[in-house]
Amino acid sequence: MGISMIALSEAQKSVVYAAIGNAMQVLASAGSGKTRVLTERVRYILEQTRKDCVIALTFTNKAADEMRQRLDDTEDVEDRAWVSTIHAVAQRVLEQYGHTIGLPDELHIYERDQDRMEVFLQSLRDHGVDIDEYLQVEDTKERRNRERIMQRYMDVFSTIKRELVTTEDEVSNLYPSDAERIWRIYQDYQAALLDSGGIDFDDILIRAYEVLQSQEWVG
Fold first, then answer.
1. pTM to 2 decimals?
2. Domain containing residue 157
3. Has residue 140 been placed in a domain?
4. Which tens digit of pLDDT belongs to each residue from 168-189?
5. How far apart are CA 209 and CA 215, in angstroms?
6. How far apart are CA 50 and CA 46, in angstroms?
């Protein structure tokens, strides 16, 4: 099915048929057809060029699968279009080039919250914190409260990574009253991840960015 067979509004056509090579930002509400329009944009680029390739990045597997299905009938699409989630692309970068920034060759990625938490708890044990005694209190309400406290630490770690924080001074901008302690515990957690031969899901984009920034020849 080519673009001529798909009904597009005038606003959508302005995106699909825009001049190739110019940057665009498309803003639209949920359910307005962004995925379809961007898919047809990819199709248009492939049909209007002969050698150019396209990389289309999404945040969800569902959107990536939908784009692949819509492009399935486009000539040479498998050779000329790479449709994937941004995390999958970043993970491939790490698998091939992660060793250039000191990551293990056989890199394990901790995606499950339970696995990430266990690495965190182990990092506390390794630094003399009797975390098992702290969490194994008999009072059910208090135990849940302490488990929530530990989860908040994990949430803080995710925030640090999403904000690309790399120094204690930058942590103080986010958590001014407790920056030193948070940074120390965070560093211990990161070291525990690497000691176990892995990184967590939040690290994927950060580490891939580090590879691309430090190794200009990658890509």
1. 0.74
2. 112-200
3. yes
4. 999 999 999 999 999 999 999 9
5. 10
6. 7
